[in-house]
Amino acid sequence: MTKPIGSKCNLDCTYCFYLEKERLYGDAGNFRMTPEVLETYVRDYIAAQPGPTVSFAWQGGEPTLLGVEFFRQAVALQARYANGKTIENAFQTNGVLLDDEWAQFFVQHGFLVGLSIDGPAHLHDAYRVDRGGRPTFDRVMTGLQLLKKHGVAFNTLTTVHRKNSAHALEVYRFLREIGSGYIQFIPIVERNAATTSEETLWLAPPPDHEDAAALDAQVTPWSVRPAEYGDFLSRIFDEWVQHDVGRVFVQHFDAALANWMGQPAGICVFSANCGRALAVEHNGDVYSCDHYVYPRYKLGNLLNASLASLVDSPTQRAFGQAKSATLPRACRECPVQFACHGECPKHRFLRTPDGEPGLNYLCAGYKKFFLHVDSPMRTMAALLATRQPPAKIMQLPRAKWVPARLKRKSPAAPF
After folding, report:
1. Would 59 disulfide with which of 92, 107, 138, 224, CB 3.0-4.6 Å?
2. What distance in Å separates the CA atoms of residue 107 and residue 97, rounded to the nearest whole number?
3. 290 is catalytic
4. CA 207 – CA 352 distance, rounded (Å)
């Protein structure tokens, strides 16, 4: 994913892990991707894609701070270097700066817009505030209405945190009511650094099993609790599987069904390995992942090396393969390992009951969720295997569902 404005944002969300990345660059420029870097990126990214479709993902910070003209230039460059390939664009925004010009641009060029919204006002405004500490919900909803007015394709991205995790159905029903047919849930899990790093970053870096200090960092008060996250997903799934299969698409549920069918999950956190979702900073620096924007995970710069060489470098391959290679024994023996795969390595900062490092902080929540959905997942997989739509599960009484087979191992996760 590309961050052409770096970490610059017009909001000051309490839980945002990316705002502090500004400190990595100090006074080096204005955090606006230069024309040279933009052209190099577009050209190299298209050339590096083996298939007929090339998907760009623009994020931040807040990319609308760059203005529409920057993305007109990006689209023009995409057309210049497309070489017969189909170009797609996804654009993640907080929605506050959207106006008619932005909406018309999105429609004209077929952008898919991801809107960040955490639920109804009292939950959204708990942490999503502007630089003056003011709530943003009303402005986000104004932006959403503009997208709807112009017929812009959109989905929603909802972070799950300490405040909204106890209101699962309220959040889900709100998202459904505002017209979101594609929903992403992102768990907030951050830790305060045990000691200030040399880069003066105050959030702890992803755990390194050789770095004992990283394991001592404390979870922030806005991070979701593991069991509550499992309950959050389970409650929403129960409503979805009764009423919304085939009508509302929830990324977690789609990925789970793929894993139950033995197919690729489609998202890195539930895949056996990772390493193909790099992050490109505003100045062309390339990092292993947007959750790993720390000096030790910098692969190089676009102006000095091609994207293809960086993503296929031994360093990055080792980074991706470490996801499965470092799974502790408790995870490898877990009945839901095939669905979870240890989730994101960034969250693996606990120890297993036998003291082995590398247990995911959200383990208890994911185990609860995946055990909960075993029977309906098997049923939908069986429907697909006989070329029937998964939505048919809504017509079946539970007595007709394929029986669950997963069994919770003993002892249970100790959280």
Report:
1. 92
2. 17
3. yes
4. 15
Question: What string of pLDDT tens digits covers the 415 residues of the chain?
Answer: 999 999 999 999 999 999 988 888 875 557 899 999 999 999 999 999 999 999 999 999 999 999 999 999 999 999 999 999 999 999 999 999 999 999 999 999 999 999 999 999 999 999 999 999 999 999 999 999 999 999 999 999 999 999 999 999 999 999 999 999 999 999 999 998 876 655 557 788 888 755 544 555 789 999 999 999 999 999 999 999 999 999 999 999 999 999 999 999 999 999 999 999 999 999 999 999 999 999 999 999 999 999 999 999 999 999 999 999 999 999 999 999 999 999 999 999 999 999 999 999 999 999 999 999 999 999 999 999 999 999 999 999 999 999 999 865 433 333 2
